[in-house]
Amino acid sequence: MLAAQRKPSASMAMAERVRQMRERGREVISFAMGDTHVSPAPQIVDGITRAMQSGQTHYSSARGLLELRRAICEHYYHAKYQDDQILVVPGVKQGIYYVLQSLAPKRVCVLEPAWLGYKATANLLNVPVVSNDQTQPGWVDRLRRETFDVLIVCTPNNPDGKVFEASETEQLISICAAKEAWLISDEIYSVYDYSQKWHSLSEFDYKRTIVCNGLSKSHALTGLRIGWIASHHRDLVDACFEAQQHIATCVSTPVQYGVLDMVRPDFAELRATVKQYEANRQAICQRFPRLAPYAPDGALYFFVPASLFGERDGTALAEKLLDEAGIAVVPGEAYGENFSGFIRMSFSVSEATLQTGLNQLTPFLIQ
Ligand SMILES: Cc1ncc(COP(=O)(O)O)c(C=O)c1O
Fold first, then answer.
1. What is the rounded CA–CA span in Å between residue 88 and residue 193?
2. Residues 6+ apart with CB under 8 A from 239
3. CA 213 to ligand 1 center in whole angstroms
4. Domain extents for the chain?
5. What would the pLDDT profile of 280-336 be if each residue is shown by its tens digit?
6. Which CATH number fits the domain 58-262, given the four candidates 3.40.50.2300, 3.40.640.10, 3.10.180.10, 3.20.20.150?
7. How far is the CA of 34 from the centre of ligand 1 (A)?
8. Does ligand 1 come within 6 angstroms of the Cβ of 221?
9. Ranges for the Aminotransferase class I/classII large domain (predicted)?
């Protein structure tokens, strides 16, 4: 299939439209992007600058700096992985590409609503994808009956923020074990856990688990492209390492040095951002009590039915909000075919932007 025939990322397509509207002088508030509104912590900016100034600008090992992999093992996984079980990659997106390419699965299963990157990546590799709607009763039994050799999960989930209970994770693992299937766990939103129940799938002893995480969302580094994959299967990590050698060579060396002392899920600036988004989530519930039942366990989004705005179709609603309210959201169809009646609204914005946006949305919500 030619690239032009593939479906573009819905959130990126919306971001492009917002950019064009702004260029034409129209004011638009974007609740479309999965990006933080803050800048990276000064220690990271200083660290990258220092690395540049001291000439740490050359190729690094394709696995990533050893000190960085050690820091990831220690700060994210209580040293459950060894440094050679981690590969530093240019973002989770590319990490998942390496994993799927290396596993060469017959069929991938995703739990919808799901981030559209999983299907897109599988499509690039011509791997068939089957989806399971996890909002419908009986989804676990349906998953058990489904045929797949890779299951991709995301917790907290994009777009609906769902965080798995430990009992659900155990069920997923037992289903995968019975099929000898690989389990890819995308944990990119792990620090945004308002439910206080998030756990990494690395805490469970299933050897075919591949955990993916990174600094895009937690450290405000979406444009710097740094993340990692971790797995007890050294052969898989080695296969991904080989792919990386040929595709990217390595993650930007100054960025790797720059984040060395900050690669942890807990520091003052990060805590402040999480607190801000928790307050935003709360403010939306208070302002629009009809959205409160959709308050996410985690991540950065409300995923809500268009019917709350008097529309049946999420795409029609997104168009209307953009044209009439100057608010950009992402239509739900991007997250699975059962979700065309939904929209995703990001709340990773400043308090002032949130308040202005909510004012503009007020006339469109059914009270
Ligand atoms: C669930 C999920 N995984 C991965 C990514 C991409 O992460 P990265 O910037 O590390 O490639 C996104 C970005 O929106 C996401 O929502």
1. 24
2. 98, 102
3. 9
4. 3-40+267-364, 58-262
5. 999 999 999 999 999 999 999 999 999 999 999 999 999 999 999 999 999 999 999
6. 3.40.640.10
7. 8
8. no
9. 27-359
pLDDT value at position 3?
Answer: 55
For ligand 1, the distance from its centroid to the CA atom of residue 367, given in whole angstroms, is 34
The pLDDT mean for the chain works out to 96
Could you give the CA distance from residue 355 to residue 2 in angstroms, rounded to a whole number?
43
CA of 266 to the centre of ligand 1 (A): 19
The distance of Cα 55 from the centroid of its chain, to the nearest Å, equals: 32
β-pair type (301-305, 342-346): antiparallel
Q: Answer yes or no: is the C-beta of 186 below 6 A from any ligand 1 atom.
A: yes
Q: How far is the CA of 291 from the centre of ligand 1 (A)?
A: 25
Rounded-to-integer distance, Cα 100 and Cα 150, Å = 9
In this structure, CATH architecture of domain 3-40+267-364? Alpha-Beta Complex (3.90)
Given a cut of 90, is residue 347 above it in pLDDT?
yes
pLDDT at res. 82: 97
CA distance 225 to 259: 12
Instruction: Specify whether the CB–CB gap between 357 and 348 falls below 8 A.
Output: no
- 159: Cβ below 6 Å to ligand 1? no
Helix residue spans in 248-292 (DSSP H): 253-259, 268-287
For a mutational test of ligand 1's pocket, the pick from 33, 100, 115, i.e. the residue with the most ligand atoms closer than 8 A to its C-beta, is 115
Which ligand 1 atom sits closest to the C-alpha of 34? 14
pLDDT band at 1; cut points 50, 70, 90: low
Cβ-contact 155, 200 below 8 angstroms? no
Q: What is the mean pLDDT of residues 197-212?
A: 97
pLDDT tens per residue, range 213-262: 999 999 999 999 999 999 999 999 999 999 999 999 999 999 999 999 99
Whether the CB of 298 sits within 6 Å of ligand 1: no
CA 117–ligand 1 middle distance (angstroms) = 8
